[in-house]
Design brief:
Elements: E1 2-7, E2 12-19, H1 21-36, H2 51-82, E3 91-96, E4 103-110, E5 124-129, H3 134-147, E6 150-153, E7 163-172, E8 175-188, H4 198-202, E9 210-216, E10 230-244, H5 250-254, H6 263-297, H7 304-321, H8 334-357, H9 363-374, H10 380-389, H11 391-413, E11 415-420, H12 423-427
Parallel strand pairs: 5-11
Antiparallel strand pairs: 1-2, 2-4, 3-4, 6-10, 7-8, 7-10, 9-10
Helix pairs in contact: 1-2, 3-6, 7-8, 9-10, 9-11
């Protein structure tokens, strides 16, 4: 077998492969003979069809089948011979396929890139630091009570935490705008669901009243066409309800899977859950900031094949989120392109760091993570056994622990600056790529 490799761009390769004619022709002949021994054709007894008749009838199809298999096998053999790691399946371009001549074809594919990493000691990472205060626990318990509250309609003036049912029409320069109107919209006053000034302007209103609100969309509003613009909202208050908070008792505690009898014990369990949430939130933010920094300081080309695979996975995830009400093929690739490339780049950079620094998943930390997950369930021992007895689930956890090892490795070399923040700010979700490291 003859092999030559040409670099056509940064990570694209054109591999020309030549296979001796005898390898193809012998396999074609072997399959035609096997076909002749079993095929049924009018005018001939089973297994007695002349080979020349079988060749005339099936020869071309069998040859194409053999050529396809030989190209695949020869390609895999050539990769091993040349010590090349492809990023995806190739595109085959047959050149010479005639019987009696050496088979020649070209395989066009991308290779796995080797990221050029920046100086980790120059990487700046801001790490949020927060502590849980009594008022944070109070607020969390209030939110839990609100989740279980029964709402009672009131005729008084509305106040913060009341639930309003409203109709509203938003206008800019006297014209209604798309997405600015709603009917029977339920709104908790003080929730921050609406833009600044909207909820505040409804405090004090009563059922049946019409209220006109003058507000301004924030400069960073997600809809750029509305960002920074003043608007008027004409609001009709249809109902005002006051949440009736449940008592803090054993029945209430049990609704959250906490089997205790006293408020003090319940607070302790709530605080323990908040500590776990805080730890996970900080770890996630630090990881996102490290990834942002690595992406900015590393150089690598994203293989199209890997990006397409990741887009496929993101599409499937989106279909699941929509309850299977659409097909993945209905979603355009473009809306997932940026996220897919970020994921692929991150994976390649992490793999390079693991490979270059011999990082491994510490088994003790894998067991620790299993126990941490199990502690959130009522039957932790069952959960522990589930993970330990399911190789696939355990492998996923090992992958997460290995990612943590990469983060720890980078943190040990980077310039880390701690910043004190409130619990609320620390646990507030942040989108990957939305945070920037300070210069």
């Amino acid at each position: 077998m003859q092999v030559s490799v040409e670099t056509t761009s940064g990570i694209e390769r054109r591999m020309t492969i030549g296979v001796p004619a005898v390898k193809v022709d012998q396999e074609v002949e072997k399959r035609l003979q096997k076909t002749a021994s079993t095929v049924k054709m009018n005018g001939f007894r089973p297994g007695k069809v002349p080979l020349k008749v079988v060749r005339r009838r099936f020869g071309e199809g069998v040859r194409q089948e053999v050529i396809g298999e030989v190209m695949r096998d020869s390609y895999m053999e050539a990769l091993e011979k040349e010590k090349i790691s492809p990023a995806g399946w190739p595109r085959f371009e047959p050149k010479v396929v005639e019987a009696g001549k050496d088979l020649e074809f070209i395989a066009v594919f991308e290779v796995m890139p080797e990221p050029k990493l920046g100086d980790l000691s120059e990487l700046k990472v801001e790490k949020p630091v927060a502590e849980i205060k009594a008022k944070d626990v109070d607020k969390m318990i209030d939110n839990l009570r609100l989740q279980q509250a029964e709402n009672k309609e009131v005729k008084r003036k509305s106040k913060k935490k009341d639930i309003m049912t409203i109709d509203f029409v938003g206008k800019i320069d006297g014209e209604a705008f798309e997405g600015g109107s709603a009917t029977d919209h339920r709104l908790t006053l003080g929730s921050g669901q609406m833009i600044p000034g909207f909820e505040e302007g409804l405090i004090g209103a009563k059922t049946g009243e019409d209220v006109s609100l003058e507000v301004t969309f924030p400069e960073d509003y997600q809809n750029k066409e509305l960002a920074g613009k003043p608007a008027t909202f004409d609001v009709t208050v249809k109902k005002v309800e006051e949440p009736q908070l449940p008592e803090l008792n054993a029945e209430f505690f049990e609704k959250f899977g906490i089997s205790v009898d006293t408020e003090e014990a319940f607070r302790a369990e709530v605080e323990k859950n908040m500590e776990r949430e805080l730890k996970n939130a900080i770890n996630t933010k630090v990881k996102n900031r490290i990834v942002d920094g690595l992406l900015k300081t590393s150089e690598l080309e994203v293989p199209k094949a890997l990006a397409e695979q990741e887009i496929g996975r993101l599409k499937e995830d989106a279909v699941k989120q929509f309850g299977g009400q659409m097909q993945a093929s209905q979603l355009p690739n473009e809306i997932f392109q940026e996220q897919a490339e970020r994921r692929v780049k991150t994976g390649l950079i992490f793999q390079a760091l693991i490979r270059q620094n011999d990082l491994e998943a510490d088994q003790a930390k894998v067991d620790e993570k299993i126990e941490e997950i199990a502690s959130t369930y009522q039957e932790p021992e069952e959960v522990i056994q589930f993970y330990k007895n399911d190789p696939q689930q355990k492998a996923q956890l090992e992958s997460l622990v290995l990612e943590d090892a990469v983060v720890d490795f980078v943190m040990a070399q980077a310039k880390v600056k701690e910043k004190k923040v409130s619990y609320e700010e620390a646990v507030k979700p942040a989108q990957p790529g939305a945070e920037s490291d300070e210069d």
